[in-house]
Design brief:
Blueprint (H helix, E strand, L loop, with lengths): L1 E2 L5 E2 L3 E5 L3 E4 L7 H8 L5 E4 L10 H12 L9 E7 L6 H8 L4 E6 L19 H10 L3 E3 L13 H16 L5 E3 L5 H9 L4 E5 L1 H5 L2 H5 L16 H11 L6 E3 L8 H4 L14 H11 L6 H13 L7 E10 L4 E3 L2 E3 L7 E8 L2
Parallel strand pairs: 4-5, 5-6, 6-7, 7-8, 8-9, 9-10, 10-11
Antiparallel strand pairs: 1-2, 3-12, 12-15, 13-14
Helix pairs in contact: 3-4, 6-9
Bound molecules: (4S)-2,6-dioxohexahydropyrimidine-4-carboxylic acid and zinc ion.
Length: 357
């Protein structure tokens, strides 16, 4: 209980959890890295770094060079490990997968269906061509990270994830039942149900923004481009299904922010691009969602235990404290020479996170 000046007493919540990791983040490259790496390394220990640069990161030597550019931007005194991924194309070879397996810094391979989202033009158009690649990944235990949306223009944008599960994910797992798969940034009841009942080699990440928001937040009373991401926010009942999954204690669900920076002008445009920037307050946003669901006790599993267990890595040694305390989210953050508008810009955040040991 904290005594306030008027003599009112308000119960402030506080919890400590094992230091978390972010199992899905976009850092971009060049001048953008100063802000994105500073935010990503503030209290996470590790991050799975998405490879959708232009041009994409398609082999180990590019991944190692990119990792070096990232490490140069880590603020002094921080221990933080970027875990790299390769971008799958129609031309990815079995050798590329073997190279990744033998590299200490590459942890997974990301599949974007071509045209599904930001910088996915070089993504996969012909899944049949990748049979040897999937076989090798299954054999070696290399995780396949999926952007789970079909790209068929006749399919409604709100149905693209559910269609992907039927048309792509189920057949893939029938052919490669032991393939390690992460269905990234899930947004629907269908995805949550599929993953909850799938075999242990199938998992999903869930973003903070899909836990906190639904499509009304983006579209009712005006179009708010900073809520636009892919897969797109769905109806409230899907948001509730994601909250149930994240707070269920099921180890198949874990934290992946999908924090994705874009310059303000690229989002506030006639054809605005997809992505929400949450890295500056990721844990604070997740804590808010878990607290609202009355499930703060489930945050440590979701944020700090389930991801390492899936990837076969140790949990972190340090501890992070989350305290209920309000602070104003910045209106803008720098992104190289541009400005970006983070999610929640100018509004109030309810939690504060810091490493304590
Ligand atoms: O909203 C998104 N932004 N979804 C993605 O899949 C990609 C990401 C980005 O790179 O901006
Ligand atoms: Zn992403």
């Amino acid at each position: 209980m904290l005594p306030l000046s008027q003599g009112i007493h308000v119960a402030m919540q506080e919890i400590s959890i094992i230091q978390p990791d972010d199992w899905h983040i976009h850092l971009r490259d060049g001048a953008a890295l100063q802000q994105t790496v500073a935010d990503a390394s503030r209290y996470f220990a590790r991050a799975i770094v998405m490879p959708n640069l232009t041009p994409p990161v398609v082999n180990v030597s590019q991944a190692l060079a990119y990792r070096q550019r990232i490490l140069e931007q880590v603020p002094a005194g921080r221990q933080w490990n970027p875990l790299m991924t390769l971008y799958l194309t129609d031309n990815t070879s079995r050798q590329d997968i073997l190279d990744a397996h033998h590299c200490d810094h590459v942890y997974a391979v990301k599949l974007y269906p071509a045209g599904a989202t930001t910088n996915s033009d070089s993504g996969v158009t012909d899944w049949e061509r990748l049979t040897a690649v999937f076989e090798t990944m299954q054999e070696l235990g290399t995780p396949l990270l999926l952007h789970g949306e079909v790209t068929d223009s006749t399919i409604d944008i709100f149905d693209r994830e559910a269609e992907f599960i039927e048309r792509r994910l189920q057949p893939l797992l029938q052919r490669f039942p032991a393939l390690k798969v992460v269905l990234e940034h899930i947004t629907t009841t269908e995805a949550a149900d599929f993953v909850a009942t799938a075999a242990g080699n199938v998992a999903a990440t869930i973003t903070a923004h899909h836990l906190l928001y639904n499509r009304n937040h983006m579209l009712a009373g005006g179009i708010r481009p900073h809520y636009y991401c892919l897969p797109i926010l769905k109806r409230s009942r899907h948001q509730q299904a994601l909250l149930s999954a994240a707070t269920s204690g099921n180890p198949r669900f874990f934290l992946g922010t999908d924090s994705a920076p874009h310059a303000r002008d690229a989002k506030q445009a006639a054809c605005g691009c997809a992505g929400c920037y949450t890295a500056y307050a990721a844990l604070e946003l997740y804590a808010e969602a878990f607290a609202a669901a009355g499930a703060l006790d489930k945050l440590e599993g979701f944020a700090s235990r389930n991801g390492p267990a899936f990837y076969g890595l140790p949990t972190n040694d340090r501890m992070l404290r989350l305290q209920q305390s309000t602070w104003p989210a910045p209106h803008n953050l720098p992104l190289g020479n541009d400005a970006m508008v983070p999610l929640r810009a100018g509004e109030t955040l309810q939690w504060h996170a810091e490493l304590v040991s």
